[in-house]
Amino acid sequence: RNMSSAGPEGRKKMRECNGLIDSLVYYIQGTIADHEPNDKATENCVCILHNLSYQLEIELPESYAQSIYMQRRNISSNDKTPGCFGTRSRKVKEKQQDTPLPEEKSNPRGVESLWHSTLIRIYLSLIAKSTRNYTQEASLGALQNLTAGTGPMPFAVARTVVQKANGLPNIRTMLHVSHPTVKKTAVSLLRNLSRNTSLQSDIAREVLPDLVSILPESLPASDIVCETTASICYTLFNLTQSSSHNARLLLSADGLPKIITISMNDCNMFSKASRAASVLLYSLWSHTDLHSAYKK
Questions:
Q1: Contact at 8 Å (CB) between 31 and 37?
Q2: Structural domain includes residue 231
Q3: Which of 9, 35, 147, 291 would suit a FRET pair with 198, their CA atoms being 20 to 30 Å apart?
Q4: Taking a C-beta distance cutoff of 8 angstroms, is the pair 102, 9 a contact?
């Protein structure tokens, strides 16, 4: 577990270690089957897999990368802007989200297991069944890692989480736990999922009212709450930016007063949350059909 957080070279060596990932997955499957999700060794295994999934898409061996990106050959190399603030056109993004992964292997081995639907379902099962905060956080964090980025793998994993494995109810439960880092990681995962336009209606229907309900009534009281609040606002931004229906859903959940309160704070400590709330308000105002409702 300690070695798995030693940086890119350490992760590479561990991913390449014959049988290691398979053994970790096998052990977790056994404890879930034996109804022992709170086992300490299970926590360690999940934390290792969480670390090994970090920056996975970037650090994949070239042979896997070629297989995954083979179907994107027709996308111009000029459109491969990295990072969150790329200049990709909407058409390219839509094409990217519609690009499936190569067909899953029925018996994945080694690094292939890290993004396989079997392990995704294991994470969701642990989120639902374990009461250990580190296990919950690591499971959510692994899914967060796998859904980060803009390639076909993150979007394929996001579709598995939301549509194939019905994972939103389990994630939604984590929004209401008292442990702040578990809640923060759950929100960060939802923020990643909400970037996929084909999943936004499902996500809004399932968790938008919950996201509004956990927004603070007043200014966030700590750094971690501030970061969580900013993440919630950006998730709501993704869900409402091009959907008047979802914006109305936010309105009916009494989200507007909270967002206004957060946006009006200019204290440096909470500027991240304040800025995110302001960006969300600006986006909400673009739905001209809701102006009269906003004014009321």
A1: yes
A2: yes
A3: 291
A4: no
pTM given for the model = 0.86
Q: What range does the domain containing 243 cover? A: 196-295
Whether 185 contacts 144, CB under 8 Å: yes
> For residues 225 and 120, what is the distance between their CA atoms, to the nearest angstrom?
27
Burial of 275 (0-12, 13-18, 19+ CB in 10 A): middle
CATH of the domain at 39: 1.25.10
Q: 5-59 pLDDT, tens per residue? A: 989 999 999 999 999 999 999 999 999 999 999 999 999 999 999 999 999 888 8
Cα separation, 210 vs 190, in Å, equals: 12
CA–CA distance, 236 with 39 (Å, rounded to integer): 36
Beta strands in 153-240, from DSSP E residues, in sequence order: none
Measure Cα distances from 32 to 55, 127, 149, 252 in Å. Answer: 27, 11, 30, 40
283/151 same-domain check: no
